[in-house]
């Protein structure tokens, strides 16, 4: 083995070096090849130019040398004395000095004067004198010439000129020239400049080639010639093979590129490229689109008899020149399919709109109208809806389905051939589409009514009118919810519209099903609302009690979405007094109405005890708390909140005593038109176990209007409380002092909200004062002997008032009451008679002992006085005051009053002095 280390194969070998050179010289991209080719061409061109310039320079130098030589020779030959010197005996001596001077002055390298045979007489090189020059024969013949002479003594560019005498004979020759070496020196002096120019030109050419190559590389993305060729081949193949038209329009609106499919779709003429798109005979809309440069997506245009989907995009953002690229797709074959898809899309959209538009009001009739309005005109030209009478009333549908009430009609004008809304529609003929639909529970189609004899059999005259009107097609659908038929929907189309087909039945059933659910919901709401309103109306006062203390008017409106718990009341109290009540139970529905009825009943019961307003609200507060506890234990809702305002007005004194539990204070409109909101102690609503209630007292001028209301009047979602109170004050301010009825009308006209989300109760009372002449009172000493004088005085007062006919029974009751107060009560004792609508007798004392009615046995000595009072008085009772109690009786003065029974003289238990 050799000890010399081996060399890896291929490394440093001549073959590998050649491969490396070839790989470096092999440029893959088209841009690189263009750059290499441009540099090679530039080198060759510059080299050729240098060579050409060098050759040209040499030629120019030689030409210049010949011209200078010729000029010098001709100047010497024509110089004066040259001929004489040639004819002189010693031409050499004669010409030597002249020859040297001419040589120095002309700038040539040599000059010689010769005999006609070429023998030198004089020469700048003295060694050549006497020697014969070669190649001068043409000058001997009399012709001057120049040439590049090669021979002894030097290669030179010389000129030989004959010297002639006066008769034209050649007497000698003059030769002048420049050696070739000096000519080459002139070329060498210009060669550096030529080379520098060549180098500059090479650098400039290389730089420009690099720039061109860089731009070409960007445009070709570094692709090589093969790839470029393949790309353009694919480009042409794809461009002309695709089934979409492709056009490129420049920013000047001229067609730049178009493929075969676009030519076919647009029927473009030959040579369309380069012409403006508006000059190609296209339809105006598509021509305007292509020329506008506007970007669109699948915009449909008509091109001849084709329907084209056009897409346009600008070319500039994608590296191309400014312009527009457009693609065209023929959708004519898809028109039918897209039409079916469009119909399906419209049907889905219509079903969605039906779900939104049908059932917005929870009103049965309005829901039926919404069904007909949704169907016309997008599904049918006409629509009629009939409902069973129980459904219209909100009741459960029962009985036969052969008779329905028309609830809605849509489509056409006043002359449409349909029975109007409200008419009774009968389906007694089983061959009609309506009867068949009701029997099967599914939609029934009559595609051509002109041959539908079953449809005509129900109403031939009406069918003829419909056909004359142009109606040609019908779909009948039963309205069913929860398996119960509610009514019927009929959809009609005229002769100007495509007739119904089998594909329309499913849509009609779906539309009817959605509407039926909405109608059933509206029916249930109507029933529940009617029940709640009926309950509420039954719990509110039907008529106001007759009394003379106040002129009262009221308004009550339930909420549109359901009844609530607002209530009002007017209650007559003993002593000609009147109680005014306004309350509000939070919430809506049957529970709120029932709770309102319980509270109103409780107020009536508590007022029967003649309690003061603060005491009555205290008992009502305890009742509400107890109800909440009971219903809360049972899992009920309880009372979410209740407010109440209770006011007692005394027409004798004009004093109004009020207390409130979370309710708004009343407004007081004075007779002069000014309005005040009364100041009252503020307490929380009922049921919150607050502090004891307090009363407020205010003396009301006669003719004042006391206005009580609930929060639904002054507050709603579009108006706050302060704004509502200001509006109420402004409405009540009227110096004309209108009646309570007129006041209610004015308040509701000005303040009623457009949509009532809460109940509204309004109570307006105008005050009256009892004539003092109709009031009589006496103080009674605590002495039984005082009974008779007071009794007699009362009798005389009754005679004065014209009430003598009831004098006996009145004196009898007063005697019993006064005697009982003297015997069992305490001072002060007071008697008051009031002549209002009836006769009121009051006996008050300082004792709070409560008398009560009982049945006396035959052996009892007393206990019959109250019994006598109860028999003679229409009403009687006891009320308590801060200083004692008041026993009172009321006697009616109406014509229907029953005569007072005559006392049984055998029964002496009613006589005065018997204990009550």
TrEMBL record:
Regions annotated as coiled coil: none
Topology in membrane: Multi-pass membrane protein
UniProt-annotated location(s): Cell membrane
Keywords: ATP-binding, Cell membrane, Hydrolase, Kinase, Membrane, Nucleotide-binding, Phosphoprotein, Transferase, Transmembrane, Transmembrane helix, Two-component regulatory system
Segments for region (Disordered): 1-24, 891-916
CDD domains recorded: HATPase_RsbW-like
Domain of life: Bacteria
Pfam families: GAF (PF01590), HATPase_c_2 (PF13581), sCache_3_2 (PF17203), SpoIIE (PF07228)
Transmembrane segments: 34-55
GAF domain: residues covered: 353-529
Compositional bias per record (Low complexity), positions renumbered to this chain: 1-15
The PPM-type phosphatase domain, residue ranges: 547-767
InterPro entries in UniProt: Bact_Sigma-Reg, GAF, GAF-like_dom_sf, HATPase_C_sf, HATPase_dom, PAS-like_dom_sf, PPM-type-like_dom_sf, PPM-type_phosphatase-like_dom
Protein name: SpoIIE family protein phosphatase
């Amino acid at each position: 083995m050799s000890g010399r280390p081996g060399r890896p194969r291929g490394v440093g070998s001549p073959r590998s070096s050649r491969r490396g050179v070839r790989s470096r010289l092999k440029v893959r991209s088209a841009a690189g090849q263009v750059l290499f080719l441009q540099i090679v061409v530039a080198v060759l061109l510059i080299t050729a130019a240098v060579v050409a310039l060098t050759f040209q320079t040499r030629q120019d130098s030689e030409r210049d040398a010949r011209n200078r030589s010729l000029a010098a020779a001709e100047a010497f030959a024509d110089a004066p004395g040259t001929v004489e010197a040639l004819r002189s005996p010693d031409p050499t001596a004669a010409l030597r000095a002249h020859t040297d001077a001419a040589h120095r002055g002309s700038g040539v390298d040599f000059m010689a004067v010769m005999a006609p045979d070429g023998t030198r007489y004089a020469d700048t090189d003295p060694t050549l004198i006497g020697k014969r020059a070669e190649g001068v024969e043409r000058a001997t013949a009399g012709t001057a010439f120049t040439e590049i002479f090669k021979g002894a003594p030097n290669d030179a560019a010389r000129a030989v000129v004959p010297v002639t005498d006066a008769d034209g004979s050649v007497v000698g020759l003059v030769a002048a020239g420049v050696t070739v070496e000096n000519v080459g020196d002139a070329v060498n002096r210009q060669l550096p400049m030529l080379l520098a120019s060549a180098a500059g030109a090479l650098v400039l050419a290389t730089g420009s080639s690099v720039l061109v190559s860089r731009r070409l590389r960007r445009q070709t993305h570094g692709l090589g010639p093969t790839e470029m060729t393949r790309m353009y081949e694919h480009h042409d193949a794809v461009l002309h093979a695709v089934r979409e038209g492709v056009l490129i329009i420049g920013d000047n609106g001229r067609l730049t590129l178009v493929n075969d499919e676009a030519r076919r779709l647009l029927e473009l003429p030959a040579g369309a490229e380069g012409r403006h798109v508006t000059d190609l005979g296209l339809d105006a809309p598509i021509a305007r689109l292509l020329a506008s440069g506007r970007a669109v997506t699948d915009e449909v245009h008509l091109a001849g008899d084709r329907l084209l989907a056009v897409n346009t995009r600008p070319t500039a953002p994608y590296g191309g020149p400014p312009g527009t690229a457009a693609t065209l797709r023929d959708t004519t074959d898809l028109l039918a399919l897209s039409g079916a898809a469009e119909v399906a899309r419209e049907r889905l959209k219509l079903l969605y709109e039906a779900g939104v538009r049908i059932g917005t009001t929870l009103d049965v009739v309005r829901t039926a109208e919404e069904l007909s309005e949704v169907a016309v005109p997008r599904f049918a030209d006409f629509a009629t809806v009939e409902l069973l009478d129980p459904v219209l009333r909100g009741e459960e549908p029962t009985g036969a389905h052969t008779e329905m009430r028309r609830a809605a009609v849509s489509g056409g004008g006043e002359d449409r051939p349909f029975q109007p809304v409200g008419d009774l529609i009968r389906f007694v003929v089983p061959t009609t589409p309506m009867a068949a639909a009701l029997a099967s529970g599914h939609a029934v189609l009559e595609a051509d009514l002109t041959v539908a004899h079953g449809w005509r059999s129900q109403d031939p005259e009406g069918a003829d009118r419909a056909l004359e009107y142009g109606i040609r097609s019908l779909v009948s659908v039963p309205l069913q919810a929860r398996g119960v038929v509610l009514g019927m929907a009929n959809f009609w189309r005229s002769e100007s519209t495509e007739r119904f087909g089998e594909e329309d039945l499913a849509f009609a059933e779906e539309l009817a099903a959605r509407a039926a659910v909405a109608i059933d919901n509206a029916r249930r709401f109507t029933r529940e609302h009617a029940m709640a309103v009926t309950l509420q109306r039954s719990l509110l006062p039907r008529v106001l009690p007759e009394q003379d203390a106040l002129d009262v008017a009221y308004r009550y409106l339930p909420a549109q979405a359901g009844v609530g718990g607002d209530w009002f009341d007017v209650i007559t109290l003993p002593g000609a007094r009147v109680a005014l009540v306004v309350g509000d139970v939070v919430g809506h529905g049957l529970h709120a109405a029932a709770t309102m009825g319980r509270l109103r009943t409780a107020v009536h019961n508590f007022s029967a005890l003649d309690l003061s307003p603060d005491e009555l609200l205290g008992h009502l507060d305890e009742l509400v708390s107890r109800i909440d506890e009971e219903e809360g234990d049972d899992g009920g809702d309880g009372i979410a909140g209740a407010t109440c305002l209770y006011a007692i007005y005394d027409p004798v004194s004009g004093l109004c005593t009020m207390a409130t539990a979370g309710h708004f204070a009343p407004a007081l409109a004075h007779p002069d038109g000014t309005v005040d909101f009364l100041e009252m102690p503020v307490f929380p609503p009922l049921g919150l176990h607050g502090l004891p209630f307090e009363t407020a007292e205010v003396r009301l001028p006669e003719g004042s209007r006391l206005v009580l209301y609930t929060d639904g009047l002054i507050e709603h979602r579009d108006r706050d409380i302060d704004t509502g109170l200001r509006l109420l004050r402004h409405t009540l301010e009227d110096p004309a002092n209108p009646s309570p009825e007129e006041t209610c009308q004015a308040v509701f006209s000005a303040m009623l909200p457009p949509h009532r989300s809460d109940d509204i109760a309004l109570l307006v009372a105008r005050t009256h004062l009892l004539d003092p002449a109709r009031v009589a009172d006496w103080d009674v000493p605590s002495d039984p002997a005082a009974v008779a004088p007071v009794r007699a005085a009362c009798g005389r007062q009754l005679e004065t008032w014209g009430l003598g006919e009831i004098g006996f029974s009145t004196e009898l009751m007063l005697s019993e009451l006064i005697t009982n107060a003297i015997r069992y009560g305490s001072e002060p004792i007071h008697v008051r008679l009031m002549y209002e609508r009836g006769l009121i007798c009051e006996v008050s004392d300082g004792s709070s002992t409560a008398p009560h009615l009982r049945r006396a046995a035959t052996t009892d000595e007393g206990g019959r006085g109250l019994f006598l009072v109860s028999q003679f008085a229409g009403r009687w009772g006891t009320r308590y005051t801060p200083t004692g109690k008041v026993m009172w009786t009321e006697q009616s003065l109406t014509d229907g009053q029953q005569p007072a029974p005559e006392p049984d003289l055998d029964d002496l238990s009613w006589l005065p002095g018997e204990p009550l």
